[in-house]
Design brief:
The protein contains 14 helices and 9 strands. It is an alpha/beta fold.
Length: 410
Amino acid sequence: SGAGHDQGQGGTRRGRRGRKRALQLMSDRDDACEVPQIRSKISTTAVMKKRAGKRGWKAPQDSTTRSKALNDGAPAAPAGMERCWECFEDLPPAGPHDWLGKHSPGERDRPGQPLKRFLQPGPHRNFPTRVCNKIYLLPIGNMSGAPDASLLCKLLECWFLLEVVLMESLPAKALQSLERKFAGAGYGPQIESQSAANVIHTHKPRDAFVVIGYTMEDICNSSKGFDFLFGEANLDLSVGIFSFARYSDDVPTSSARFLRRCGMVLCHEVGHLFGIKHCVYASCLMNGSNHLEESETRPWALCPVDLRKLQLTLDAAKLQGKDTPPLDLVERERSLLEFFIATGLPDDAHFSRAIITATYRPALIQFAASRCEGSAGGGRAAAADGAAEQAEHRAQCTCRRQQLGDQKAF
């Protein structure tokens, strides 16, 4: 329910009692379901706490809800995935201007998309194939100040583990055919996103899994009532478009923070093209956002539910044939860690290390146990625990070396 939103001083006595009771139940639930967390050192944590003081609808993020979303009706998740919940903060209560707020577009996302629903057959899912297995990146219109395209391509390769190809810019005739809203919304004439999706689709290569258009011009979707958009994905056409126009108001386009904003919306929109919907299970890259503050407070990482969706989709695609090995989550995270270090994003690198540690520990314990099979009785378990602790200590030392700039770690 949306209880918790400020509804003014009016209303019936019964209505006020109902809202008060709903707020109390919400508070009780949050106290009872608190889970341990690894704080990420993301610079926007203070903003998160400020937003958490708002009254508004709060997504159920207790351990039972999260476990059901990850495991019910789905293949058993890797042992380390459950531990990754410790790395993700709760979504704060949604204020009236937030994505999940009452009467906001994201109100329909409140039920969430658990694994069971995601895995059901239907047009909501999209798989790469051995023929159509590339992500294409398409510059559109004005690109002045846009991030280095090679960095965007490298990011997508690390994130989705598919080949990424940079396309030539749209020809002049195609650009002229784009529908525009010339009145704009403070950032000059806007490109209509639906028109852009159709134009992008006509230029989609045969071996493309998805094509993503990006621009430094503002975009909107007037037919759906969106005065502006950060990005929009069209799953039916397997194309998307996103804009960097609103990301450089308070930071230079050469800064790491600008790259972070652009990279996050890029990964978010391509995630939608896999069929991954907006997340409500934690503060996660796949959360919806109505404004820049809401967008920036998300971590640049997928929560266990959404990471599992990506893993199962790529595993099912078997792009290397029937003997394709399962997706290596730790190796994927290591490549992202290297990207964050190389591009000057230490907070995101710290978060990535926390995920590696959480994911890696069960594997360390299993490896240590196999090393100690020759031991007997209780000594075997004690030896396994000791070996696991030593291995984890070595991993933590490696993380500390990375903090000192050693990019050869891991």
